[in-house]
Amino acid sequence: MPQQLPDKRGHFGIFGGRYASETLMPALIELERAYNVAKKDRTFKEEVASYLATYAGRETPLYFARRLSEKLKGARIYLKREDLNHTGSHKLNNTLGQILLAKRMGKERVIAETGAGQHGVATATVAALLGMKCRIFMGKEDIARQAPNVVRMKILGAEITTVTTGTATLKDAMNEAMRHWTARIRDTFYVIGTTAGPHPYPAMVRDFQSVIGRETKEQILKQEGRFPDVIIACIGGGSNAMGIFYPLKDIKEIEMIGVEAGGRGIATGMHAASISAGKVGVLHGNKTYLLQDDHGQVSDAHSIAAGLDYPGVGPEHSYFHSTGRVRYVSVDDEEAVQAFLCLSKLEGIIPAMESAHAVAYAIKLAPTLGPEKVIIINLSGRGDKDAETIIERMETHS
Amino acid sequence: MTGRIGQTFKELKERNEKALVAYITAGDPSLEKTGEIILGLADAGVDILEVGVPFSDPVADGPVIQAAARRSLQRGTNMSDILDMIESLRDMTDIPIVLFGYYNPMFAYGPGQFAKRAKGAGIDGILVVDLPPEESVELRKYTDEAGIDFISLIAPTTSASRVKMISEDATGFLYYVAITGVTGTEKPLASRVREDIASIRRITTMPVVAGFGISTPEQAAEIAPLADGIVVGSAIVRLIQENCQKNNIVTIVSGYAKNIKAAIGQNRGNRA
Questions:
Q1: Given its phi and psi angles, is residue A248 left (phi above 0), alpha (psi -120 to 50 degrees) or beta?
Q2: Is B11 part of the annotated catalytic residue set?
């Protein structure tokens, strides 16, 4: 039997761990204990499963993208439709799990960071559902480019804190959420949105997102009678990718590809490709690949997709990179935009700009494979929120 | 082996005095000024200096120290230059110096190389905010060997069993975080500090200093008797920022430190 990771201290090989200030340590230990009990508790598991089915609308379909496959004249492409999950992305899988846990732990309020706003909306949604106070930290830059999600969070009753430090994007929102948590540690549960942060977050978020991969496994066996050849998912912090990869990782014949945001191109330095172009370091409680300078100062990330605009990556992805289990590649802003438009026009599915990165890589890969091959793209979210970004881009390029 | 930090606490105890620990961010407004301010603070009676290594993502710091770190990084401050600056002061002062910061800049330097270079530069201790005992081995296998003290934080949220683990592991002194929050954002509550430090003292005989949020001579006088010393950080960093254009910045900062030192001296022997 393969070794279960992370180890007791939250390490995935040399990655992960718990690099946190002492004020947070007792809360992280408390969370770890509570989660370890909850994940084995039948009542808790049934509660999560029940909300996923009757509230989130799971399972989400695995859809054969016929016109996209035909156009690319290669592998058959399936889309795992996380865009059809309630709130419009995979993020709800995790916030339902974490906030049900928070409730169980007797916490009264939740906080979260958000980049694209999808995690913020998913947190605000479950906070409303379970009657908890909610505060969302969001960078000023992201508030401007993801306005529809900001409105949704407000409608749901969340308080929004605008973060103006640094590049005023996801990393800075996370810094500010951690500072706030430090001051309100006793009554507040911090709902981290991705497979990053200090232990036990990377493992806990992975577990809550693994529903994606478990469903995919059954669905593809039913529809194709076999496992896929390739699974492709976009990587910011990496929660949607981990969700679909993890339950299938031991099936060796499946090639797994994580697509990082290449921004304006890796060579320009204006990107968010932590694994492809970063170095190992410590940020936000864990050791992982980071964009940083020679002196250990974390660099600013750049991506057209706010949800990928993060200079780090979940530690288990760094581990999968080190073992070679997952191959990490990148596509740039322009390729993502083209994929966004292509999928919208061919299939009538407007993908989130984040998910469009996975689509873009599939568009490159599919024609190189024969029609007997099967590719699954994790379509992690829907793209209504990106309408303005696309309009601006089309106007400036036309 | 007792280093300069241990020696300092021993002497303070013999004189029945409390330690004044002063924090400044290296490179704000410039490394040259930081050097001058360190010498001024040492002359003003500061017992231990904490020199902050600026980091891009200071999650344990409030707005004042965040801004100082940002200004310093904008000027291009880095670990090598900070250590060079400190080494250059060692002909002029023996004050114990603790390097205060986050792990990534030390990790990026290379833990082994960092320990060697820091010792060579005359660093007495390190306090790495995001490196709890559970993760510290990677760095401490080098810094312990180099004889650099590993100062640890204890928070109001730390349980008795963790205080035991941390204090058995730490060297130099313990830094009690007097507020539940980030640096310089709230005022510590004396009753809480008294209670927590009393609990710490039941577990360890290691010196305990209190910090995060102490800014006025009155607060210093109130908190110092409860501990073996106090740390003043954000207040000094703010003073430096407000006076960075002035020629007499060193005098201003030293004057402030003298007032604090005098205030904690008045309560001498009044230990709770």
A1: alpha
A2: no
How many beta carbons lie within 10 A of that of residue B35, not counting itself? 17
Residues 6+ apart with CB under 8 A from A50: none
- SS3 category, B27: coil
**pLDDT tens profile A220-267:** 999 999 999 999 999 999 999 999 999 999 999 999 999 999 999 999
Residue B272 lies inside a defined structural domain of this protein: no
Residues A22, B177: C-beta atoms closer than 8 Å: yes
Residues of chain A neighbouring B130 (CB-CB closer than 8 A)? 19-21, 282, 285
Please answer whether residues A256 and A231 qualify as being in contact, where contact means their C-beta atoms are separated by less than 8 angstroms: yes
Chain A residue with Cα closest to B160: A26
CATH number at residue B59: 3.20.20.70
Q: What is the pLDDT of residues A217-227, one digit of tens each?
A: 999 999 999 99
The verdict on whether omega for the bond into residue B29 sits within 30 degrees of 0, i.e. cis, is: yes
Helix (H), strand (E) at residue B116: helix B111-121
pLDDT in tens, B229-268: 999 999 999 999 999 999 999 999 999 999 999 999 865 4
pLDDT of residue B266: 67
How many structural domains compose chain B? 1
Residue B270 lies in a domain: no
Residues in chain A within 8 Å Cβ distance of B164:
none
CB distance from B8 to chain A under 8 Å? no
The mean per-residue pLDDT over the stretch A51-72 comes to: 98
pLDDT of residue B269: 45
Residue labelled with tokens 């009690």: B176
Quote the domain boundaries for residue B99.
3-265
Among A317, A275, A284, CA closest to A170: A284
At residue B125, does pLDDT exceed 80?
A: yes
Is the Cβ of B154 closer than 8 Å to some Cβ of chain A?
Answer: yes
Alpha carbons B50 and B97: distance in angstroms, whole number: 6
Cβ neighbors of B137 (< 8 A, separation 6 or more) are none
A26/B155 touch (CB, cutoff 8 Å), yes or no: yes
pLDDT in tens, A11-36: 999 999 999 999 999 999 999 999 99
d(CA A16, CA A157): 34
Which residues in A331-361 are b (16+ Cβ under 10 Å) and which e? bbbebbbebbbbbeebbebbbbbbbbbbbbb
pLDDT for B270 beyond 60: no
Phi, then psi, of A25 in degrees rounded to 5: -55, -50
Residue-level length of chain A: 398
In this prediction the ipTM stands at 0.95
pTM higher than the cut 0.90: yes
Asked, for residue B210, whether it belongs to a domain, the answer is yes
Contact assessment for residue B65 and residue B36, using Cβ atoms and an 8 Å cutoff: no
- Interface contact B155-A166, CB threshold 8 A: no
Cα A300 from Cα B56, distance rounded (Å)? 10
Active site members of A: 91, 113, 380
* Helix pair A387-397, A333-347: axis angle to 10 deg: 110
Contacts of B102 in chain A (CB under 8 A): 282
Residue to mutate among A9, A21, A163, A172, with most B CBs inside 10 A, is: A21
B271 part of a folded domain: no
